[in-house]
Design brief:
By secondary structure, this protein is an all-alpha fold. The chain is 74% helix and 3% strand. The protein is built from 6 helices and 2 strands. A two-stranded antiparallel sheet has the order 1-2.
Amino acid sequence: MIPLAVLVAGFCLFFLVGRLAGNNYLADYHHALRPALAIMFLLTASAHWGAKRADLVRMMPPVFKWPEMWITATGLLEVVGAIGLLVPATAGFAAWGLALLLAAMFPANVHAARLRLTIGGRAVPKLGIRTLLQAIFLCCALLASRH
C-alpha cells in the first residue's frame, strides 16, 4: 500500500505544481504521472537490494530458477524505467516497458499472496487487493505512455 500512497501523493504534488506554477508540461495529467511513477518505482526498486531482498526472493515462484538473479534484474529494470520516465524522449517507451514489467512480475505477487508471505514484516496484500493495486499501477503506466 505504501507504493500506492507514494504514487497518489506524487501525482497530486506534480499535477498541482504544474497547475499552480503554470507549468504546462506537468499540468497535463499524463506528464504528472511520469515523475510520480518514477518515484514509486525507485521506492520499490530499493527493496531489491535492501533488508527486504530476502523477502522478495521468497516471493519468486519455484518455477523461476535463480530467484536472486530475477530480483536483481527486475530491480535494475525498475530503476532504468524510472529514469526513462523522466526523459521526455524515452518516457513513452519506459512507461510501456514498466507496464510489461508489472505484468511479468505479477506471478510473484500471486505466489506471495497465496503463501501469505511478508515483506519487511508486513503481510503482503491479499490476492484481490494485490490484483487491484497491480491494475492501478498498470493503468497509470499506460496513461503515462501517452504523449
